């Protein structure tokens, strides 16, 4: 019987991946285990699938606690992290400990537990400010923040765990993922969750800088589908791929689109640019398409609409 483990499975992306895995297991059955300390994840993210998922409320830094959960898994999806560029600047130590030390514990448990493959959630932040767009996997990493360094170290470890310890790993650099269940309650929340919150409350969002910075916003179900493909694609052990859509939109464009969708006019406030911010981000998806079968389904309009519907129903 197939066993999947998702670290960070009670979080925004992880809980979507859990649903994708349950569909994949289908009638054949199998086990889905979630490791989450509920620091930024929530039990309610797994509400309607809770009877089909084993939730282990443990911290990834606790090697002894995660080892028995990970042992014998077919695939481990390592998504648990303290996200956010500004948070890693305000509080570098906790994000270092979770994102680097915790990641090491997960990889180590995977080797000792004879896991077949580990899919690691890397980050597009590793590219930093490249001179050209789109960003392609062969470009040198140029991290601009502790978070970007930490996520990049995880990639390096993933590749070395494949070459030195015989664990198949695949790193996916997530590009600004958005969608239902992204938590808008913190100042460190992703911009699209904050835009949704302000749109529904009819309040002004704050845009850091001139709003002309751009991102390759990627719908969460497309990322979850790619994680599953990365678990099974042949001949990719030790490699890193972009997990993006291959487009880019400025914050000003997205805020305009959302106002139009909601039929309102709310002027955004503008503040100083944020430290560690990357100016433009857009993925080259050629390698992920060719080697993993990446085929994102959601245009920005379709993804924003589904996301907005969810926030309307839940906020
Ligand atoms: C970065 C990574 C992304 C990763 C994420 C994890 C890049 C290009 N992307 O996202 O892959 O998943 O970290 O946290 O490095 N902003 C505002 N107002 C706000 C909040 C944010 O204007 O209230 C702006 C930021 O300054 C930034 C943009 O919105 O320019 C996106 O910010 P955010 O959603 O935090 O994600 P990134 O830092 O781009």
Detailed description of the structure:
It is a single chain. With 315 residues, the protein is of the alpha/beta class. It has 10 helices and 13 strands. The chain has helices spanning 12-25, 63-70, 85-90, 92-112, 146-165, 191-201, 220-232, 251-262, 286-292, 300-314, and strands spanning 3-7, 31-35, 54-56, 75-78, 117-123, 168-174, 177-178, 206-208, 214-215, 218-219, 239-243, 249-250, 269-271. It has a 7-stranded parallel sheet, with helices on both faces. Strands 7-10 form a two-stranded parallel sheet. A two-stranded parallel sheet has the order 8-13. Strand 5 (117-123), helix 5 and strand 6 form a beta-alpha-beta unit. Helix 1 (12-25) crosses helix 7 (220-232), helix 4 packs parallel to helix 5 and helix 6 runs parallel beside helix 8 (251-262). The N and C termini lie far apart (39 Å). The model has no long low-confidence stretch (mean pLDDT 98). The protein binds uridine-diphosphate-N-acetylglucosamine. Residues 83-85, 123-125, 174-176, 190-191, 194, 206-208, 213, 215, 251, 274, 277-278, 281 line the site of uridine-diphosphate-N-acetylglucosamine (UD1).
């Amino acid at each position: 019987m197939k066993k999947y483990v998702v670290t960070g499975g009670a979080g925004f992306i992880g809980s979507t991946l859990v649903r994708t895995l349950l569909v994949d297991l289908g009638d054949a059955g199998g086990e889905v285990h979630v490791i989450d300390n509920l620091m930024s994840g929530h039990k309610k993210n797994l509400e309607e699938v809770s009877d089909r998922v084993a939730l282990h409320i443990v911290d990834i830094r606790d090697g002894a606690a995660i080892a028995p959960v990970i042992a014998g898994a077919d695939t481990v999806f390592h998504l648990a992290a303290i996200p956010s560029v500004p948070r890693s600047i305000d509080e570098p130590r906790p994000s270092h400990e979770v994102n680097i030390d915790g990641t090491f514990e997960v990889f180590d448990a995977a080797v000792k537990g004879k896991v077949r493959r580990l899919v690691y959630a890397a980050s597009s932040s590793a590219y930093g400010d490249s001179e050209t767009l789109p960003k392609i996997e062969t470009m040198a990493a140029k991290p601009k923040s502790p978070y970007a360094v930490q996520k990049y170290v995880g990639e390096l470890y993933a590749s070395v765990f494949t070459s030195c310890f015989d664990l198949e790993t695949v790193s996916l650099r997530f590009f600004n993922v958005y969608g239902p269940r992204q938590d808008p309650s913190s100042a460190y929340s992703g911009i699209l969750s904050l835009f949704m919150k302000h749109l529904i409350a009819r309040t002004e969002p704050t845009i850091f800088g001139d709003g002309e910075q751009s991102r390759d916003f990627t719908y969460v179900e497309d990322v979850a589908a790619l994680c599953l493909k990365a678990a099974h694609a042949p001949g990719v052990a030790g490699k890193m791929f972009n997990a993006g859509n291959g487009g880019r939109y400025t914050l000003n464009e997205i805020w305009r689109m959302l106002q139009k969708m909601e039929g309102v006019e709310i002027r955004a406030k503008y503040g100083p640019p944020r430290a560690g911010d990357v100016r433009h981000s857009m993925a080259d998806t050629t390698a992920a398409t060719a080697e993993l079968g990446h085929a994102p389904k959601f245009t920005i309009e379709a993804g924003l609409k589904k996301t907005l519907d969810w926030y309307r129903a839940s906020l």
